[in-house]
Amino acid sequence: QVQLVESGGGLVQPGGSLRLSCAASGSIVRVNAWGWYRQAPGKQRELVAGIITGGRTNYADSVKGRFTISRDNAKNTVYLQMNGLKPEDTAVYYCNAVLRYDSGSGYYTSDYWGQGTQVTVSS
């Protein structure tokens, strides 16, 4: 069974920083792509940042220059370093992984979601 577990959310003042982590566990062969999404109350879930095999990254315009996504392949973990946080960054942040895993009876590729972690930016 594959699981994604997030950590690192919390309350921070405007201009502050937080680092989110998301670790995948289970019979994982390879993580092809990671993504961080967020959902604010009353809004749709949106992609914040993504990173794919080879290291190419992409960011939402609203976070470019402030957020950085990175990964540790050996640990099957992705990070989101968030600097210069603004009140409008307040949301529940979710990680997503498109990965290949060993079910015991074959290899499959699927995507998984973390449970979400709350980020609140407020003075």
Describe, in short, the structure shown.
With 123 residues, this protein is mostly beta strands. The protein contains no helices and 11 strands.
In the predicted model, the low-confidence regions spanning at least 5 consecutive residues are: none
Q: Biggest sheet, in brief?
A: 7 strands, mixed
By secondary-structure content and strand pairing, the structural class works out as mainly beta
Subunit arrangement of the protein: single chain
Strand element count: 11
Gross geometry: elongated
Count of DSSP helices? 0
β-strand percent reads over 45%
Give the distance, in angstroms, between the N- and C-terminal Cα atoms: 40 Å
What would you say this structure looks like, in words?
The chain has 123 residues and is an all-beta fold. It has no helices and eleven strands. It has strands at 3-7, 10-12, 18-25, 28-39, 46-52, 57-59, 67-72, 77-82, 91-102, 107-113, 117-121. Strands 2, 4, 5, 6, 9, 10 and 11 form a seven-stranded mixed sheet that branches. A four-stranded antiparallel sheet has the order 1-3-8-7, with no helix packed on it. The chain starts with a strand and ends with a strand. The model has no long low-confidence stretch (mean pLDDT 96).
Name the descriptors.
123 residues, mainly beta, 4-stranded antiparallel sheet, 0% helix, elongated
